[in-house]
Amino acid sequence: MLSSLIRLPVPTEPASIEDIFSSALGTIFTDDLLNQHGDPGSSVIYKSKACGDLELQLVDPRGEDARKLFAQYLWNSGLLMAELIGGGTEDGQAMKARGGSWNVKGETVMELGAGTGLAGIVAALAGAQEVVLSDYPAPEILANIRANVHRNIPQASSSRVAVEGHEWGVLTDPFAVSHKHAYTRIITADCLWMPWQHLSLAESICHFLSDSKDARAWVIGAFHTGRAKLAPFFDVVLEVGLEVEDIWERDVDGHERAWTKERDGGREDITRQKRWMVIAVLRHAQSPKPHSISPSTAS
Hints:
This protein has helices at about 15-25, 25-30, 65, 75-85, 90-95, 120-125, 140-150, 175-180, 200-210, 225-230, 235-240, 270-275; strands at about 5, 35, 45-50, 50-55, 75, 110, 130-135, 160-165, 185-190, 215-220, 240-250, 255-260, 260-265, 275-285, 295-299.
């Protein structure tokens, strides 16, 4: 299970009974899956088979706008992205067979909505030629990502990693203009829960993704906020000149199944639903008829 990849640092002071109980809910109530890890201002440790233990500080956002982005937690989608990029999953070969290789060695990588920066940090440690970790340009969010980069990236590799503020869909600032089609891999995890931001996110992916035929964007989103909030994104990407090369679902235990926009007639059990994520591989449209996202439902 993905949550087994996370542990909390040893506390310097005794924890309260309430903190002990809340952190153990996923163990006591096994159906009560934790989708987010840590608390604002705290830190968590990601136990990576490929990279070793990575300690990540969680930001304590200032202001309502920054807090509503929920960058103050580490989410299961980010853990799965890190596992795929780092090759740390037990069935890594089977995963990589879908949508091509998830190997980033020698690639130029941009993470959109980096949050803690975990996936981008793992990409750098996995041999990416260049990595840019981007998130909403709130000073405390960017400063926290830089601190996590400094903590986990060796000094010898630090010149290959940069942190940039980027608001999705804003493509006229100096950074966006000078880095158009600059990245062979775009990665984004747990950024699909805001339907009103789908078009802006898709525009940023299309703008920064290299026009090389081998360039890909990897997108992972979890269903804990509802499948219906995520599903329209994969139609929106078609409007901006992208297409879906592959798309499927995976749960926190590694089981996989076909993607569907709706399951159980829209009455999907929330306890089961939040165990699942959608994984998609996007590319620039290469034909007049992009990959069709099946409108069928599943039961």
